[in-house]
Fold each of these.
Amino acid sequence: MSIKGKKIVLGITGSIAAYKTPHLVRLLIKAGADVRVVITDAAAHFVSALSLSTVSKHPVLASVSDGANWNNHVELGLWADAMVIAPCSANTLAKLAGGLCDNLLAAVYLSARCPVFIAPAMDEDMWIHPATKANIAKVKSYNNKIIPVAHGELASGLVGEGRMAEPEDIIKYLSSYFSDDHKPLAGINALVTAGPTFERIDPVRFIGNFSTGKMGIAIAEALAEKGALVTLVLGPTHEQTSHKGITTIKVETGDEMYNASMAVFNDCQLAVLTAAVADYKPAMRSEVKIKKQDGDLNLLLTKNKDILAALGKIKVPGQTLVGFALETNNELENAQLKLESKNADMIVLNSLSDTGAGFGHDTNKVILLMRNGEKIPFPLMTKKEVAGAITEQIIKLRYATETV
Ligand code: CTP
């Protein structure tokens, strides 16, 4: 099932429907999710933390200072692939709409970079009140998903709309969201540069590097798998892809890669520049083969255009720019400098000093540096897994900036 392997924070608020949440936790776990529960004080009147910790197999968190440190709200917000607030009372809905933050649940919500699903639960009169309607519209405008309320008997004894969706229906909603049919990057045009560039000296010689383009192709495929329409600007390499979501433009030189990238970037919402562009090219390209002479040959090199920096300059809100940094020394410091100087939203740092990482290998070990100072390290993984991790982070980033 599609919920399998997802990390889910379940937020429970004060509503009679909270009594159904141990069952919801059970169903989530049965579907393969890893669940952490956060409750409000009011929720504790309707469901016991002991039941929830027993079924979720983890302690239930209730206050910002729970756990070993105070910033568990940020950690949970970053950890989660999805946050589900079920039941969501009228009061909590108003807090979410207004950005209030007077309990752990609200703090996790504000810190969450993942999709948030809200299952409201209240009496029909509260549900149809214009204030509630306005709050629903507001939280929807923040990209949250509302799990439709059900019709039926309410706690007041009245029959009407406002019941929390049944746990089984919440699972169905989440499954369909996470199913392969729902692609979080659907409708996104993405540019990926990959491979080396060859800078010709004469018709038979060039300056190049050992890049194979494997990492970039893996990223192009991971983005396409999530629904993006990818233009892959690929330097000279034997690696290729036949993924149907990818259009490949083959180039040879840094100038050609620059021109191809500039031509498509305006129409893209995302660019991931993995190419190892030669920083320098011969100042003159000889049209004929340079003959051997006595003594040394001096080759004058001139700078290639920096594609990442150029895109960083023309980037507009709604465009996400990701660069790579391959470093051999002062890795974090240099990567941080690249993030800022090239105006990227994320830099993927790989170090040649890590065994199994870098050019030609099928594995890579990276640290993601984010614009807010966050650094996310990953263990040695296959390039496909690294591409998946980078793609997940891109999706989270785009949700956080409400651009999806
Ligand atoms: N890059 C680019 N165009 C260039 C050089 C680099 O688009 N002419 C991009 C790479 O694709 C990568 C990032 O910039 O995403 C960093 O590349 P790297 O070669 O590590 O950094 P440089 O800026 O070239 O700096 P240095 O070589 O001094 O480390």
Amino acid sequence: MRILITGGAGYIGSHTLLEVLTAGHEAHIIDNLSNASPTALDRVKQLANRDFGFTEADIRDRDAVQAAVDDFVPEAVIHFAALKAVGKSVADPLPYFHNNVYGTLVLLDALRASPCRCFAFSSSATVYGDPDYLPIDEAHPLSVTNPYGRTKLQMEGILQDLAHSDPSWSIALLRYFNPVGAHASGRIGEDPNGIPDNLMPFIAQVAVGRRPAVNVFGNDYDTIDGTGVRDYIHVTDVARAHLAAVDWCAAGNGKGRGCEPFNLGTGRGTSVMEMVDAFSRACGKPLPTIMTPRRPGDVATLYADPGKAERVFGWRAELDVDDMCRSSWNWQMHNPQGYDQEP
Ligand code: NAD
Ligand code: UD1
């Protein structure tokens, strides 16, 4: 299959690109490298031992996106390109709507004249807001707690309306829980700019000596040890889910499957302290922690019911928290400064 991947140089995109190439598909990337390094693409090329197309452009650049669509003639699109920092979206929301929502509109507009009606979209568990019940299934009510989440909900709505208007579309709304970890090779991984907002890259930077201690945001939640519980999922499992989703879309044989949401999680919750302990085991040393107040907006516990993805397209997560920590450490150890520095 010919698969167009926006944001394919980013964290989840680069892992998905590698799985796509390894599975024998052809790929073309559109990425403006606003939050990615070209080194990630070079390394995917080496690992897959295969080439792919790359348009370095913003998805809001209609001419560039149209040219990529017209030249590559995709059979499926995987749409990762977005801004994703929750805190920044609260401080300055307009770039989030412009980049994420308007960018998606430009991309969909460019697909109008093409035969491609197969689309996998990067959504997020953030669309569930504060959970009413656990585990969270796809029927859980949707709500937003920040502008980033609102962009995801708006884009889901746009895609629902599009599929409703034209029944030839097959659209998978993939709601990721907490993707972490790195490819087993240690050659690609998560490389956040500045101080990591998210737990796993922060722990990894403590382990490699870039930061003194893990700040634990609250130990007075109603959880196993008082710290926040999340459904961490290995990025390789997330990447594989995209292949399964695209296969499901394509297997409609020209008959659209509509627009369906799918949770991508393991169904298991892990607390912050359990994660720190698992990472300590992986890197073979204790990791200092500092208890700090709760982070505003955080909830105690979130985990998925991932059953629908298994029932519908036969995917389930295979890797556990130890795999996540080992692979994350392998990446961080061999790339202590991320992509900026060759090991
Ligand atoms: P990332 O920042 O590593 O990847 C996003 C990629 O998109 C980057 O390569 C960036 O350069 C590119 N990009 C951004 N805006 C663009 C634009 N206007 N034009 C072209 N390229 C653009 O993020 P990620 O963690 O790989 O996330 C991928 C997707 O998954 C995002 O849509 C994100 O919102 C979603 N998501 C991520 C997580 C997570 O924990 N990482 C969780 C839920 C959902
Ligand atoms: C966050 C976003 C979510 C986004 C996801 C992936 C918020 C409120 N939510 O999810 O929308 O989809 O990232 O990008 O930002 N923690 C610490 N110390 C840290 C960092 C985190 O204790 O330095 C704790 C948090 O309180 C939480 C857990 O670790 O309990 C996971 O946090 P994080 O990795 O930021 O993910 P989420 O908050 O679940």
